[in-house]
UniProtKB/TrEMBL annotation:
Keywords: Coiled coil, Signal. Residues 87-138, 142-193 form the LysM domain. The lineage of its organism: Bacteria, Bacteria division WOR-3. InterPro entries: Bact_Kbp, LysM, LysM_dom_sf. This is LysM domain-containing protein. It comes from candidate division WOR-3 bacterium 4484_100. SUPFAM superfamilies: Tropomyosin. The keyword Coiled coil applies. The keyword Oxidoreductase does not apply.
Amino acid sequence: MKKIIALTFVLCLVIPAFAQEKLTEEQAQAQIDTLKQQLSEAEAKITELQSQVENLKSDVNNLKTRKSELESKLAELQETWKRCQWGRYKVVEGDWLSKIASMREVYHDGSKWPMIYEANKDKIKNPNLIYPDWILLIPTLDTYKVIPGDCLSLIASYLSIYSNAKRWPEIYEANKDKIKDKDLIYPNQEFTIPHD
């Protein structure tokens, strides 16, 4: 490839020179020497550029590796951030996982106890044994089915939602198609719960 480019370059310079008036032998030799010098410089430049291309390819590969590492770290941080948003429940005497899950401020559904167990496996070795004063993570829900007595601020205050009643507008904004009046919600309505 390098030779073809160099040869093409030389021919482009030589052909117009021959099309002109006849040269003396010394003039022709001088032109040939000039062209050889230009060819040598062009080959040196090609070699330099090839080296730069190889360096750039190496840089691109390094950047791809770095990008992959950063994407992995981002996914890890997103998971950590998600866990930071989860509610917290302090175990009291007489608690067990399904009892906690069935509490209104948690899931009001005892069958969801495995969610609590999975989120706290680092602490809970046996799902039948939990101890007072443990702080358990309560994973958040992506959807919520309204039960009698609920209002948006109460839903937002639940440990499985936001643990913060003041965040009720987020639920309202995400479900405007289902909520005509923010002060009127009905049992069995199912709301999307947005999380950052």
